[in-house]
Model the fold of this input.
Amino acid sequence: MEFTIENSLSGKTKKDWVLVGIYENGEMSSCAKELDTIADNVISTAIKAKELSGKIATTLLFPCKRILAVGLGKKDHLDLIAYRQAIQSAAQALGKTQALHAINCLTELTIKDSDVIDQVAETIRIFEDRFYQFRQFKTQSDQILAPLSQITLIVPSQATQLAKKGLINGQAIARGITLTKNLANLPSNICTPDYLASQAQQLAKKNNIKIKIFKEKDILKLKMNGLLTVAKGSIEPPRFIVLNYENAPKKKTKPIILVGKGITFDSGGISLKRSLGMENMKYDMCGAASVLGTLQAVAEMKLPINVMGLIPTCENLPSGQACKPGDIITTMSGITVEIFNTDAEGRLILCDALHYAKQFNPEYVIDIATLTGACLATFGHVASALFSNSDTLTQKLLAAAKKSGDRAWLMPLWDDYDKQIKGQLADLVNIGGPTAGSITAAKFLSHFTKTYHWAHLDIAGTAHTKNKSATGRPVPLLINFLQQYILEK
Done:
C-alpha cells in the first residue's frame, strides 16, 4: 500500500474516496465542510436528518459522492485512543467499497496529548493491518478484500515535516508487524527452527544488525539443557538466535533485551495435546516472530537505542528419544527442574535464554511468549498478561500498552505461588498444577531473572485470533515502549 502526504483536496479525482470527520454536536471537520459544499450538501443534509450522529466510530457511506463520513465523538474528548477507534471503523467501512484510492482527511484533526507523527503512524498501521492478507499458498486469484492500493493523508501545511516523519515511522512499524504475521502464519513444515534462523540472518544483513546463530553443538557447550531437552523429540535441530542492534549515542549503554519463545510446533511432546485445534500450535513461535518484527521496525526507524533479541527455537514432538514426565534436568543457570508435564515446554527453553541475558548487564529484559492456555482462558483475545519484578518497568509497559492500544493487564507475581512449583526431587517443577497456570508459569521464569529488571508478556490469547490469523501483537506495544524509553532518556 502506498501512502503520500498532501495539504489539500485540490488533486482529488472522481476515483478517490474521501474520509471526513463529524463531531457529535454535528460540527464538521474542515475537509468535511469543503467537500459538503461541492457535493450538494449531502453531509449536512444527513446530519440534519439525524442519519449521521457523529458518535465515535460510527460511519456513513455516500457511494454516489464517494464520501465516507466518520463519527469523532465529542470534540474535547478526541485523543489518540478515540482517533484510533475512528480510523479502525473507517478502514473497516472502506473495505466494503472496493475502493482503489482513498484520501484520508482525518489526519488534519487536532487531537489531545498527541501530534501529527502519532496520527500518521497510527493511520498507516491500522490500514495496513485491516487490508493484510496471507495468500502465499493460495493457487487461485480470488480476492478476499478490496485491493486498496493508495492512500493520501491530508495534513495542515505547517505539519508537513512532522507528517513525513510519521510516514517513515508508520511504514516501518507496519512492515515489522507484517513480518511478524507472515512468519507466524507459515506452516511448521516450512517455518522450522533453521528457517527462523535464516530469516533472522536476512533481517540482520539487511539492517546492519549483528547476529550469531548457535547450532546444536554450540547450545550443548552453553549447557542450555532446557532448550536441548525440549528439542530431543524432533528431527529438526534447535537453534539459539542472538541479534544485537547497537545505535545508542553513548558507548557502553545498557541494552534492552527482548526474549522470544520460538517453539515452531508444539504437539505437547509425550504429554500429547488433544488433536482438536492442534494445527494452531504453529503459532507457538509468535514470541520469536514479534522479536524479529520489533527489531526490523527499530532498525528501519534508526532508533537511537541498543536492543538485543534472544530467540531459543525448536519443535516439541513425541518420539522414542523425547523427554519424559519425571525427567530431571540441570538448566544453564544450574537450577534443577523436574519435568512433570512435557507440554509445559516454553518455560524450559526461556529459562536458559533468560539466564544467558544476564551477562549483558541489561537495562531491562522482556520475554514474549505464547506460554499458557490459562492466559487465553482468562483474557480471551483482548489483553496480554503482564508480569514483572520491577514496578518501574511495569508502569512503562502499561503506559505503552495504553497508548498503542495493544492492551496488557498486570498480574500478581507473589511468593505465595512458589509452593506450587517447588520440587521435592529437584529445585523446581515445570508446572504448578491445575490452578493459577499463567501465574505459576511466570513465577517459574522469575527464578532465572533475579539479577535484573524483567517483565514477561504472556501473549497466548493475543498473538493470533480464533479465526487462524496472526495479529502481529505485541509489536505495537514494544515499539511504543522503546520510543518512550528514548524520550525519557
Summary: The mean pLDDT is 95.
